[in-house]
């Protein structure tokens, strides 16, 4: 049985502007000692999924409205608050994005670490301080004993993140959730923090859920990857298999929107057109359809299930033999993955039905307008028109108004 099993998790935020459909039926499993990456754009539901696992959703707006989170045979969703507090920190720990806002600025590092240890272990103050010194030394804090008396602002960003890692691992949890642990750190410090996380989780046998938008980070840190979009898992595979044969248009877009060291000189990045969906709108059809160049008519009406790409093979959810699963009606071919766009003869993305926003068409129109920008500028200058200085919505120039429009204003 898996150490952690998330089954059809649904999270909603009820706000004055409407209901935000943050997580929409997420399902995955995690084995002991396994390292899982959760990737996707900002706002796709990565952090909310994991906050829901340990029941730290902001209240009263955030609510778990469906599903189960089973940890060691217990459903965490229905546990009393007193019992979930015992599990949170002791068995499942979390490293948050910004250590400066996660640490209490008016308490020393030592006070915060000792409080955390004593809250979950029957130990004396001296024993807790000794454990704090031991774990700070383990994460690479120089002269850890005197530094227990320092406040968070007396540490650099990288050192504060090391302190957060130390606090999370002090109780030797079975699962560590790392939410963008290298945010706002420079590249050198990022590498050090990631290497530290990888080494300590392996040494302590701790399972890791790594939340990030950076595919380069999960490539070297995880054994499996779940790709999230608009509150859904749209692709899941072992790390090696996902990079070898990405099968969802969104995953292909992510891979083509980041630079590669093996690219030919002058090869352009291919961005994902359009914007993420408004999560206040209940999903209808595939959530990626408005931005997808591979979409079919059915994509506007039916959201595909997450299923194995190798039909007829046994479904494996964890481990090195985990099945490669994708939620897509029209997965890209191998050649299209390499090209980053559809190249089948005669294929065209299905047009949007009436009432649906077509982000792909909007982006194409914007590119066409931009292509004719130089002609517009030359014609405007020859005619004596005054060119506007600021961009309009979407970054395109605001067309100059004629004299009659100015008179009406």
Task: Give a brief description.
The chain has 409 residues and is of the alpha/beta class. Helix content is 34%, strand content 18%.
Question: CATH class of the domain at 4-222, please?
Answer: Alpha Beta
Terminal CA distance: 70 Å
Instruction: Provide the helix percentage.
Output: 25-40%
Radius of gyration: 25 Å
Q: What class do helices, strands and sheet pairing give? A: alpha/beta
Query: What is the CATH homology-level superfamily of the domain at 4-222?
Result: P-loop containing nucleotide triphosphate hydrolases
In DSSP terms, counting alpha (H) and pi (I) runs of 4 or more, how many helices? Answer: 15
Stated plainly, the CATH topology of the domain at 4-222 is called: Rossmann fold
Q: Average pLDDT, to the nearest integer?
A: 86
What proportion of the residues form beta strands (DSSP E)? 15-25%
Question: Which short descriptors sum up this protein?
Answer:
409 residues, alpha/beta, Rossmann fold, eight-stranded mixed sheet, four-stranded antiparallel sheet, 15 helices, 34% helix, globular, disordered C terminus
Describe it for me?
With 409 residues, this protein is α/β, with parallel strands linked by helices. Among the domains are: 4-222, P-loop containing nucleotide triphosphate hydrolases (Rossmann fold, 3-Layer(aba) Sandwich), CATH 3.40.50.300; 372-408, no CATH class. Helix content is 34%, strand content 18%. The termini are far apart. The model is unreliable at 383-409 (pLDDT under 50).
């Amino acid at each position: 049985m898996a150490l952690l099993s998330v089954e059809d998790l649904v999270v909603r935020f009820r706000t004055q502007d409407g209901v935000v459909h943050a997580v929409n039926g997420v399902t995955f499993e995690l084995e002991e000692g396994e390292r899982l990456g959760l990737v996707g754009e900002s706002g796709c539901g990565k952090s909310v999924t994991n906050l829901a696992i340990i029941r730290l959703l902001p209240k009263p707006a955030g609510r778990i409205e469906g599903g189960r989170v089973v940890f060691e045979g217990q459903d965490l969703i229905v546990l009393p608050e007193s019992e979930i507090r015992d599990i949170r920190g002791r068995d499942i720990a979390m490293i948050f994005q910004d250590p400066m806002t996660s640490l209490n600025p008016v308490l020393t590092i030592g006070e915060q670490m000792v409080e955390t240890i004593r809250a979950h272990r029957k130990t004396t103050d001296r024993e807790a301080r000794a454990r704090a010194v031991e774990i700070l030394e383990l994460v690479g804090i120089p002269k850890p004993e005197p530094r227990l008396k320092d406040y968070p602002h007396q540490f650099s960003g990288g050192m504060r993140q090391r302190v957060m890692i130390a606090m999370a691992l002090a109780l030797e949890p079975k699962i560590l959730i790392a939410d963008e642990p290298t945010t706002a750190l420079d590249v050198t410090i990022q590498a050090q923090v990631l290497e530290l996380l990888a080494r300590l989780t392996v040494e302590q046998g701790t399972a890791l859920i790594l939340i990030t938008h950076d595919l380069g980070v999960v490539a070297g840190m995880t054994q499996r990857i779940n790709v999230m979009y608009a509150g859904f898992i749209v692709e899941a595979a072992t790390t090696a298999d996902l990079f070898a044969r990405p099968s969802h248009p969104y995953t292909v877009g992510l891979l083509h929107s980041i630079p590669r060291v093996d690219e030919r000189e002058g090869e352009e990045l291919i961005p994902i057109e359009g914007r993420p969906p408004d999560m206040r709108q209940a999903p209808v059809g595939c959530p990626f359809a408005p931005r997808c160049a591979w979409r079919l008519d059915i994509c506007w009406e039916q959201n595909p299930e997450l299923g194995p790409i190798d039909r007829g093979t046994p479904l494996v959810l964890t481990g090195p033999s985990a099945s490669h699963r994708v939620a897509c009606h029209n997965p890209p071919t191998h050649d299209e993955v390499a090209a980053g766009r559809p190249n089948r003869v005669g294929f065209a993305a299905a047009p949007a039905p009436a009432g649906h926003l077509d982000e792909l068409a909007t982006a194409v129109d914007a590119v066409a307008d931009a292509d004719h920008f130089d002609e517009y500028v030359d014609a405007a200058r020859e005619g004596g028109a005054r060119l506007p200085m600021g961009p309009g919505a979407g970054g395109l120039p605001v067309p100059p108004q004629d004299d009659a429009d100015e008179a009406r204003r």
